[in-house]
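Margin note: ligand = 2-acetamido-2-deoxy-beta-D-glucopyranose.
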Amino acid sequence: MGDSKGSLLNFPLLKSIGDLSVFKDNGEYGILGAVVVGILIPVLLSALFMGKKRVKVRGVPVEVGGEAGYTIRNARKTELVEVPWDGATTVAALFQQSCKRYSRNQFLGTRKLISKEFVTSKDGRKFEKLHFGDYEWQTYGEVFHRVCNFASGIVKLGHDVDSHAAIFSDTRAEWLITLQGCFRQNITVVTIYASLGEDALIHSLNETQVSTLICDSKQLKKLYAISSRLTSIQNIIYFEDDGEVKDTASGNLSKWTVASFSEVEKLGKESPIDPNLPSKHGIAVIMYTSGSTGLPKGVMITHGNIVATTAAVMTVIPNLGSKDVYLGYLPLAHVFELAAESVLSAAGCAIGYGSALTLTDTSNKVKKGTKGDASALQPTILTAVPAILDRVRDGVLKKVEEKGGLAKNLFDTCIQSPTSFCQRKLIRFVLCGGAPLSGESQQFINICMGAPIGQGYGLTETFAGAAFSEWDDNTVGRVGPPLPCCYIKLVSWEEGGYMTLDKPMPRGEIVVGGFSVTSGYYKNEEKTNELFKVDEKGMHWFYTGDIGQFHHDGCLEIIDRKKDIVKLQHGEYISLGKVEAALSSSNYLDNIMVYADPFHNYCVALIVPSHQVLEGWAQQAGIEYKNFAELCGKAETVSEVQQSLSKVAKAAKLDKFEVPAKIKLLPDAWTPESGLVTAALKIKREQLKVKFKDELQKLYECSI
Ligand SMILES: *[C@@H]1O[C@H](CO)[C@@H](O)[C@H](O)[C@H]1NC(C)=O
Ligand SMILES: *[C@@H]1O[C@H](CO)[C@@H](O)[C@H](O)[C@H]1NC(C)=O
Ligand SMILES: *[C@@H]1O[C@H](CO)[C@@H](O)[C@H](O)[C@H]1NC(C)=O
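Resulting structure:
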């Protein structure tokens, strides 16, 4: 196999991989399925094997203020960048200038719903199937007019410009128009995940005293149901959906002024109001993050933060411009998507909207024989979150493993040999953020998609901007040098054993300072003072709680997380994230949370097993069971999964105390809707601990 040539690889092989059913189960994976089918081996890959001689320096040490540590800046810029171009100091100014610059370019694209039907599956469940038409576009010039109209309309409707407005909706063109419209009247916008639970929604709206709420029409019913607890709301503006019957009749109409989005636009068009543009230190967005603990916290993001990240990311995506087409489908209420769309609209790109469930021709909600969003749009730039990429990789690998024989041989060749024949290259860049992507997944996606992955590292608190891997960096497992809008400092964390004097690389807590660092948490001075510091030069620093190390070329690698480290009874430290990452390579696992009680000397784990793999094993082992929950409860099953864990733990060289002594198999998946994982599919430890309190207690009760 070692001497096989790249020419062995041909289209049918990749096609057969793409056809594997993993891509048909769920819309999330679908896009990548389509991409694997359509796109071949990257030019870049050759560089991976030839470019080892010279190491390009991407980040260099720098002297800064604040706490002592080891600090790196981007190698290309001596001074931090603050704005994309002169005069674009606020999001409102930047947007107005882009719209002028690119006025005739296509900007926002949306697909019209042609029909909606229900199909019934064999087991009697009903599924909604949608048929969407082609993308219909509006130019930058046209969108700008709509933004101005909305800005006037919301004031005419009666919104008090000194109070906050909130957006509670899935990603769509009107989301962006609303945001920009509010900015033109210096209105701060509160953003809330559409999948956030009721209590978190009420908390966010009440804490910020939102008076106008802008939402999808499908949210109206939910809002009416909790109207007595929404004491600050005065106006509701809802986005119309084709084919949706609006539900304004069932609620408490006397209490709120309710208007559709188009009514507000019309109102503004008929009676325009002068804009009242914000300043760079003004708060543009209060973004509620689905934090991994307790109630969500509102991060105060200034106009200056947004334009700084935008300016910095524009310098790292090569040749970004009006030829580029981007598929927007992740939640805009997530900082990563909002930052991406800010960058693309500043560069004059076209943004076509889609959704996770309609991404490809074979996605769940797409009517058979009609096009998914990706085939209708043919994007050149995509975003993805690591958890999805990891699952795609695992799914493909498992399938290939099962097929064995020739397919596996060819596939291994494909992964291991340098080739550079690239036939139909559409996607030219993949933006990846939300959590660190494993090296294996990065390499895999690089090869299957034929496009470089720009891995971003950033948090809501740094408006997504911290580090970003450069397009010509083919190494894996790192997140690149600091973006040119900020510095990254490592600060020693003695208790955890990570020091800036460590060899061969300095290690420590990652602290970000610069123009992308936000102003703190809304109405939460305690937490703000704990995690944000202003140094003697006035620079803002954010303490991320992530542990990193700097490679010699100035690239950052995330290696641990401060709060996920628990000191066991006998004094050993256990890093829950590290153990979870290692154990995840067991085929049986869909999800895992390792838990360590400091009063014991071992850890335990909650595991959501993979239906397919576990049922496959049960069939082979001749195990009888009525349903999946029963299978999960069987002693043989638990023992089988535990053996598999021991095996991968050994391979990963985990210590004995790092291997869960007891496990509990849970039949139901952890989803963002259930609040157990974030929208980027990171586990929420605190929520899981609360929900499975009894199970965890039982795991520690039974003596071992
Ligand atoms: C914009 O609003 C902020 C409060 O959010 C206020 O401090 C500032 O003065 C306003 N700017 C203008 C130009 O009205
Ligand atoms: C809303 O916030 C106020 C304080 O600003 C608090 O007293 C009240 O209990 C909150 N209401 C709800 C429903 O959370
Ligand atoms: C309508 O509002 C009143 C007072 O605000 C409240 O008592 C009542 O429960 C509400 N009805 C519904 C259907 O929400």
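DSSP finds 23 helices and 27 strands in the chain.
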